[in-house]
Design brief:
Helices cover 33% and strands 25% of the residues. It has 196 residues and is an alpha/beta fold. It has one domain: Maf protein. It has a seven-stranded mixed sheet with strand order 2-1-3-4-5-6-7.
Length: 196
């Protein structure tokens, strides 16, 4: 079993990653949350830089390879915002959703296109960047939140091909179609190939 630290303090993310892993290589990798004082300064200029900052710190703390992702919602009508600042756009989920809807007030459906991007980086305890992968899903911002699952902006992110928001997806759909799933699959394949 390959043990990989997950560079996050968000237990939802660990749960989601482990659920996705069940569809990929359930018996070969175990992801664990970082213990201790994990408080990286995300001052990178790109998703990749921020994911590396988190992965390198987690690997250093835990003494094992660590995986971290930086994920953002990019809305064309807002010049790509919230983008890199998606997690810090507002203090909590409810206020993030309210702020995004108020910024898009009066913007017609055809101009509300957006995408979720997820960049994952794997780092060694000495800070070496081992591998990076990227996943993306296109959609648009709905006029109101819909769905009970997921977290963050999921209730607003509508996927036309599925006629659902991210928060209305079944666990299986999310674990195979989301931006995080699309980034995790090639990352897990790389880890299994290089560590087995």
């Amino acid at each position: 079993m390959i043990k990989i630290a997950l560079g996050t303090s968000n237990p939802h993310k660990l749960e989601e990653i482990n659920d996705m892993l069940k569809e990929l290589h359930p018996k070969s990798i175990e992801f664990v949350l970082v213990e201790g004082n994990f408080d990286p300064v995300e001052n990178g200029k790109t998703f990749e830089e921020n994911s590396y900052i988190k992965a390198a710190e987690a690997a250093k703390i835990m003494g094992i390879p660590a995986l971290a992702d930086d994920t953002g919602l990019c809305v064309r009508a807002l010049d790509g915002r919230p983008g890199l600042y998606s997690a810090r756009y507002a203090p909590d989920q409810k206020s993030k959703i309210s702020k995004l809807l108020s910024e898009l007030e009066g913007v017609k459906d055809s101009d509300r296109d957006a995408y979720f991007s997820c960049t994952m980086t794997l780092a060694a305890p000495d800070g070496t960047k081992l591998h990076t992968s990227v996943g993306k899903i296109d959609g648009f911002i709905a006029q109101k939140p819909m769905g009970e699952h997921g977290f963050g902006y999921d209730p607003l992110f509508f996927i036309p091909s599925l006629d659902k928001t991210m928060a209305e997806l079944t666990l299986y759909e999310k674990n195979t179609l989301s931006h995080r799933a699309k980034a995790l699959k090639p990352m897990v394949e790389w880890i299994v190939h290089n560590y087995s």
